[in-house]
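Re: weekly structure request thread

Next one in the queue (124 aa):
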Amino acid sequence: MNVRYGDQVKDSEVSPTEPNWLLRAARERVESPDYPGRSLSRVELAEAVCALIWERTGSERALDAHYIAKLERGVVRWPTADYRRGFRDVLHVATDRELGFKNPSSEKQPELPDVPSEPAKDAV
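Done, posted below.
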Protein backbone atom coordinates (compact mmCIF):
# COMPACT_ATOMS: atom_id res chain seq x y z
CA MET A 1 0.00 0.00 0.00
CA ASN A 2 1.37 3.40 -0.97
CA VAL A 3 0.75 6.55 1.06
CA ARG A 4 1.18 10.06 -0.32
CA TYR A 5 3.10 12.59 1.79
CA GLY A 6 2.98 15.92 0.00
CA ASP A 7 4.85 15.37 -3.27
CA GLN A 8 6.31 12.03 -2.19
CA VAL A 9 4.80 8.58 -2.41
CA LYS A 10 6.13 6.17 0.17
CA ASP A 11 5.50 2.50 0.70
CA SER A 12 3.64 2.23 4.00
CA GLU A 13 4.90 -1.30 4.59
CA VAL A 14 8.03 -1.40 6.70
CA SER A 15 10.71 -2.96 4.57
CA PRO A 16 12.59 -5.67 6.41
CA THR A 17 16.23 -4.97 7.10
CA GLU A 18 18.97 -7.49 6.66
CA PRO A 19 20.47 -8.44 10.03
CA ASN A 20 24.15 -7.73 10.52
CA TRP A 21 25.32 -11.28 11.21
CA LEU A 22 28.99 -10.29 10.96
CA LEU A 23 28.76 -7.86 13.88
CA ARG A 24 26.86 -10.33 16.01
CA ALA A 25 29.30 -13.16 15.22
CA ALA A 26 32.28 -10.91 16.03
CA ARG A 27 30.71 -9.96 19.38
CA GLU A 28 29.96 -13.59 20.19
CA ARG A 29 33.58 -14.62 19.43
CA VAL A 30 34.89 -12.34 22.19
CA GLU A 31 34.75 -13.72 25.71
CA SER A 32 32.92 -11.79 28.41
CA PRO A 33 35.29 -10.21 30.95
CA ASP A 34 32.64 -10.72 33.65
CA TYR A 35 31.49 -14.25 32.79
CA PRO A 36 34.34 -16.45 31.51
CA GLY A 37 33.17 -19.01 28.96
CA ARG A 38 30.33 -16.75 27.78
CA SER A 39 30.19 -14.34 24.87
CA LEU A 40 30.55 -10.61 25.25
CA SER A 41 27.11 -9.14 25.94
CA ARG A 42 25.72 -6.09 24.16
CA VAL A 43 26.04 -4.13 27.40
CA GLU A 44 29.69 -5.15 27.79
CA LEU A 45 30.43 -4.24 24.18
CA ALA A 46 28.81 -0.82 24.57
CA GLU A 47 30.72 -0.15 27.80
CA ALA A 48 34.04 -1.23 26.27
CA VAL A 49 33.58 0.97 23.19
CA CYS A 50 32.56 3.97 25.32
CA ALA A 51 35.61 3.45 27.56
CA LEU A 52 37.93 3.40 24.52
CA ILE A 53 36.39 6.55 23.10
CA TRP A 54 36.75 8.25 26.49
CA GLU A 55 40.43 7.24 26.70
CA ARG A 56 41.16 8.51 23.18
CA THR A 57 39.10 11.68 23.04
CA GLY A 58 37.90 12.57 26.51
CA SER A 59 34.42 12.54 25.01
CA GLU A 60 31.59 10.77 26.79
CA ARG A 61 29.25 8.75 24.55
CA ALA A 62 25.78 7.35 25.12
CA LEU A 63 26.29 4.05 23.30
CA ASP A 64 24.15 1.36 24.91
CA ALA A 65 22.83 -2.18 24.38
CA HIS A 66 19.79 -0.86 22.49
CA TYR A 67 22.02 0.78 19.89
CA ILE A 68 24.07 -2.42 19.59
CA ALA A 69 20.80 -4.30 19.00
CA LYS A 70 19.86 -1.84 16.22
CA LEU A 71 23.23 -2.43 14.61
CA GLU A 72 22.81 -6.20 14.82
CA ARG A 73 19.27 -6.02 13.41
CA GLY A 74 20.54 -3.92 10.52
CA VAL A 75 18.45 -0.87 11.40
CA VAL A 76 21.66 1.16 11.61
CA ARG A 77 24.30 0.28 9.00
CA TRP A 78 26.95 2.99 9.39
CA PRO A 79 27.76 4.13 12.95
CA THR A 80 29.97 7.14 13.59
CA ALA A 81 33.70 6.92 12.92
CA ASP A 82 34.52 6.84 16.65
CA TYR A 83 32.08 3.97 17.21
CA ARG A 84 33.40 2.03 14.21
CA ARG A 85 37.00 2.39 15.44
CA GLY A 86 35.95 1.30 18.94
CA PHE A 87 34.09 -1.73 17.59
CA ARG A 88 37.09 -2.74 15.47
CA ASP A 89 39.42 -2.53 18.46
CA VAL A 90 37.17 -4.28 20.98
CA LEU A 91 36.17 -7.01 18.53
CA HIS A 92 39.72 -7.50 17.17
CA VAL A 93 39.08 -6.86 13.48
CA ALA A 94 40.94 -4.67 11.01
CA THR A 95 38.14 -3.30 8.81
CA ASP A 96 34.59 -1.99 9.01
CA ARG A 97 33.61 -4.52 6.36
CA GLU A 98 34.55 -7.38 8.70
CA LEU A 99 31.84 -6.07 11.03
CA GLY A 100 29.26 -5.73 8.27
CA PHE A 101 29.25 -1.93 8.35
CA LYS A 102 28.18 -0.44 5.03
CA ASN A 103 28.54 3.22 4.14
CA PRO A 104 25.27 4.13 2.40
CA SER A 105 26.90 6.92 0.39
CA SER A 106 29.40 4.52 -1.17
CA GLU A 107 26.89 1.84 -2.12
CA LYS A 108 26.10 1.85 -5.81
CA GLN A 109 22.76 3.42 -6.46
CA PRO A 110 20.43 1.59 -8.87
CA GLU A 111 20.32 3.09 -12.32
CA LEU A 112 17.07 4.80 -13.21
CA PRO A 113 15.46 4.16 -16.57
CA ASP A 114 15.70 6.89 -19.16
CA VAL A 115 12.68 9.18 -19.07
CA PRO A 116 11.91 11.33 -22.10
CA SER A 117 12.11 15.01 -21.28
CA GLU A 118 9.15 15.82 -23.53
CA PRO A 119 5.99 13.79 -24.05
CA ALA A 120 5.82 11.86 -27.30
CA LYS A 121 3.95 13.68 -30.09
CA ASP A 122 1.32 10.96 -30.45
CA ALA A 123 0.62 10.81 -26.68
CA VAL A 124 -2.82 11.96 -25.68
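Residues 15-96 form a domain with the 434 Repressor (Amino-terminal Domain) fold (CATH 1.10.260.40). The longest helix spans residues 42-57.
Next request, please.
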